[in-house]
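Sync notes, pocket subgroup
Present: LS, DG
LS reminded everyone that the earlier model was apo-only. Rerun requested with adenosine-5'-triphosphate included. Inputs:
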Amino acid sequence: MRLEVDITGKRFRSAAGGTQEVLAPVSFALQSGEVGVLIGPSGCGKSTMLRIILGLDRDFEGRISRPPEARIGMVFQEPRLLPWRSVEQNVRLAAPDVTDAKLAELFRILELDAHRSHFPGELSLGLARRVALARAFAVEPDLLVLDEPLASLDDALAGRLRDEIATLVARRPVMTLLVTHSLDDAIRLGDRLFLLSPRPARIVREVPIAIPRAGRSEAELGRIRAELAALQLESK
Ligand SMILES: Nc1ncnc2c1ncn2[C@@H]1O[C@H](COP(=O)(O)OP(=O)(O)OP(=O)(O)O)[C@@H](O)[C@H]1O
Ligand SMILES: [Mg+2]
């Protein structure tokens, strides 16, 4: 499967009647098995781009080509759970075919066992994000779109969940698009990093990481991190 993004522009009209340009021309493609990472300043248009890619916002110029049969798993920047449904129901509603065994595995990995019957209003933001991740994984997605999924989690848990995302991505051929402000998440998970400009977002630089995810040693990661820091300084 292949996702092709070819956005030529996106504007929002303000209530006062003005318009704000949010996306400049942006184009890239993702293959199954690839993780693309979008990195850019707050407000540059990342979440807007994801909504366009998912087909949730059709008011843009350009074209998105996504296999119509692709199953989509999405973690929004705000967890967006159904407030009147329990944690378990939230996951089951999104993934009606999920088996009990799969659900149990996801709840164990995401450390949600004790919260199955809780309602979203009873969860901390970090817990709610984990439920949103469980929901996205339960779908067994072909296209996985993650908008800052590890924000507001402590470092240890974020590290474990990052490994889980890597495992999931290795297990099935999935096209993954991740938005993060964490360079560490980007270089541990990404195959291709897209560095974005301030609004209106355009791709300033594409950084491929040739070493397979599982083979990246701490030394390699350090080298990539330094290279990236230099590029970000250069593009400022
Ligand atoms: N529905 C909307 N109507 C009008 N303007 C909007 C709307 N949604 C977003 N914007 C504006 O578009 C710009 C980009 O917003 P977006 O949420 O895509 O940024 P972002 O890169 O995801 O930022 P962050 O890293 O803070 O999540 C912002 O200036 C925002 O105010
Ligand atoms: Mg955002």
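DG: The chain has two domains: 2-71+141-235, 77-140.
LS: Residues 12, 22, 40, 42-48, 77, 199 surround adenosine-5'-triphosphate (ligand 1) (CB under 6 Å).
Action: DG to write up.
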